Amino acid sequence: MTILGTSTIDVFPLALGGNVFGYTSDEATSHAVLDAYVAGGGNFIDTADLYSAWAPGNSGGESETIIGAWTASRRNRADVVIETKVSQHPAFRGLAASNVRAAADASLRRLRTDWIDVYYAHYDDPTVPLEETVEAFDALRTAGKIREVGVSNYTPERLREWIDIATRRGFALPVALQPHYNLVERAWYETGLAPVAAAHGLGVVPYFALASGFLTGKYRTPADLRGAVRGGMVSRYVNARGLAVVEVLDRIATARGVAIPTVALAWLRGRPGVTAPLASARTVDQLPALLASATLELTEQERADLDQVSARIDG
Fold this sequence. Notes:
alpha/beta; TIM Barrel; 12 strands; globular; two-stranded antiparallel sheet; eight-stranded parallel sheet
């Protein structure tokens, strides 16, 4: 376990993504995945009020509803850390104070809980004064509806502005940051957000930690993309530079007797400031490779090889 940023929240060093719950995983399968994750030592569950509004027949909040039903049936709410997000639900768009309040209450109902451990601003809302949003999050914390504040998909400049406002007004400071960060997406986070996170002690929980599945090694040719749910998202990595990263991952995984995603996640977990990579499991069978990353320690040479080959992506 490890502490999330400057908070007192103790989390497993692999966060389980809930974006597949109610989308590619039905409720029964989702509950089985959650059971297996907890049985493997996990306690850190990520979702958003948006998930999964994009799926046919869904309206948003399906993931939260499934997680809420699971904690209620297992009676384990106090044993897990749940983080969710606001700004993208079809009925609760944006970060106006009234919307933040209403969306948080809706999430609490779906999650069947009295509190959210970490509540994120999912995406910046430039139409609302940032001070209004920061104050709204602080009010939720004062009311006991959330334990801590998190920020996702903000530019370094806007993140600094959020922190400056909170410091000046005496509001709760963010403790967590969710950036897009992995072996084939390094530059945006490392050159801009990482210095801010380090300066303010933010716990970093990178999403798309496996690059939408590319870093599992199952997509190596255009033919592999046909019919894949995330084929469109992965296609930009299926090139010489991306495949060179997979080749190094494969070599290390083979030598260590583990799966490719285990190595990719272990690399990310070991990056400065990273508390826990965020990854999803559509089925229970996919989970062991993810859980194994929490304890796999790469050698200095293995890290150097991955650092070098992945640095070429943005070169």
